[in-house]
Design a protein that fits this description.
Layout: H1 2-30, H2 37-44, H3 58-67, H4 80-91, E1 101-105, H5 126-132, H6 148-152, E2 158-160, E3 167-169, H7 179-183, E4 189-193, E5 200-203, H8 211-217, H9 227-231, E6 237-240, E7 243-246, H10 256-260, E8 266-269, H11 277-323, H12 331-342
Helix pairs in contact: 2-3, 2-4
């Protein structure tokens, strides 16, 4: 009995050693060489694995960065410029600093401005709610209020305001990973530059219905009147599909559009002073008056110049007309005979 046990142990041990040797040889034969810089890049990453960079996680980002010829198409929004500088140093690349971004909720359809028309008693999810019907209010474009964006945020930067029924972004916690943008079925959340000292202007509405319909659904909606487009002197505002959009690259933060918006759809954030609509409207009025006077003066100058040129050309035209007048046959002979008779 003891002999059988000993032989069993010996056979199992030898078999284990043989199989281990086989596995080792196979692993050495088919092993894949990995660039050691991948581990270095991964260590430099923040480790959030949020997918904001467009890859499955920090490891996938590191692998893509090492294989890429440059870092133009690779950026970690969570780590920002500091992390990208470390990655560039590891890989020997150059990277340009990018302006920090923040999530912006482009809906101002509060409970007071957007009355509820029916009650939703289903599963509390914006995605499910959007799949069932347009909205429980008259606006089919606005926030559904179930908080999918809050659940998607890994950094606690979003919360639901019980008073307005809208999500609120904490810009100090927001990393611009874009998870909330992907989670919103109504596409009301946008990543925009934070702006100098956090100041920024944006249209807090995405309603593409025509003015009367949008206004009926929500008192704070953009009605596509175009006043902001006409007011902006920097060509920073465009009107697309009945809703205004402010280009952050062109906006000079003058706040004139915000003051002139009749529904309050344009919002200014983090400005040191409150908006003085009366002062801004007076400034616009003075500028428009000066522009009108300048245009009138220019038109008068053009008219005076045209009259002066016409008077100056009048004698020359007379001489040219006289020279071009045709001479009747025999007129020269009659003139010579008259001169001889007079003598």
């Amino acid at each position: 009995m003891v002999t059988i046990i000993i032989w069993t142990i010996a056979v199992v041990t030898i078999l284990g050693l043989v199989l281990a040797l086989v596995l080792y040889l196979v692993a050495q034969r088919f092993k894949v060489e990995e660039d050691p810089r991948i581990d270095e890049v991964e260590k430099a990453m923040p480790g959030a694995n949020c997918g904001g960079c467009g890859f499955a996680g920090c490891r996938a980002f590191a692998e893509a960065a090492v294989k890429a010829p440059n870092l133009d198409n690779n950026y970690c929004p969570v780590g920002g410029n500091d992390t990208m500088a470390k990655v560039a140093a590891i890989l020997g690349y150059e990277v340009q600093a990018k302006a920090p971004q923040v999530a912006v909720v482009r809906c101002n359809g509060t409970c007071a401005a957007r009355p509820t028309l029916n009650e939703y008693n289903g599963y509390p999810s914006c995605k499910v709610k959007a799949a069932l019907y347009s909205s429980d209010t008259g606006c089919a474009w606005g926030c559904l209020g179930c908080g999918d964006c809050v659940a998607a945020c890994q950094f606690g930067a979003l919360s639901m305001d019980s008073g307005t029924g809208l999500p609120v972004v904490d810009q100090e916690k927001c990393t611009a990973c874009g998870a909330c943008v992907k989670a919103c079925p109504k596409a009301i959340i946008e990543l925009r530059p934070k702006g100098p000292r956090g100041m920024r202007e944006f249209v807090s509405c995405v309603n593409k219905d025509k003015g009367p319909v949008a206004k009926k659904a929500c008192a704070n909606a953009c009605i596509g009147c175009g006043i902001c487009v006409k007011t902006c002197t920097h060509a920073a505002i465009v009107m697309e599909n009945n809703v205004a959009y402010i280009d952050p690259a062109k906006c000079k933060l003058c706040r004139e559009c915000e003051a002139m918006c009749p529904t309050g759809a344009i919002h200014g954030v983090n400005f040191p002073k409150p908006l003085d609509k009366d002062a801004i409207k007076e400034r616009i009025k003075v500028r428009q008056q000066k522009a009108k006077e300048a245009a009138t003066a220019q038109a008068a100058a053009v008219t005076a110049s045209a009259v002066a040129n016409k008077k100056a050309d009048a004698p020359a035209e007379a001489v040219t007309a006289a020279a071009a007048k045709p001479v009747m046959p025999g007129a020269e002979e009659a003139s010579e005979k008259k001169e001889v008779t007079n003598e």
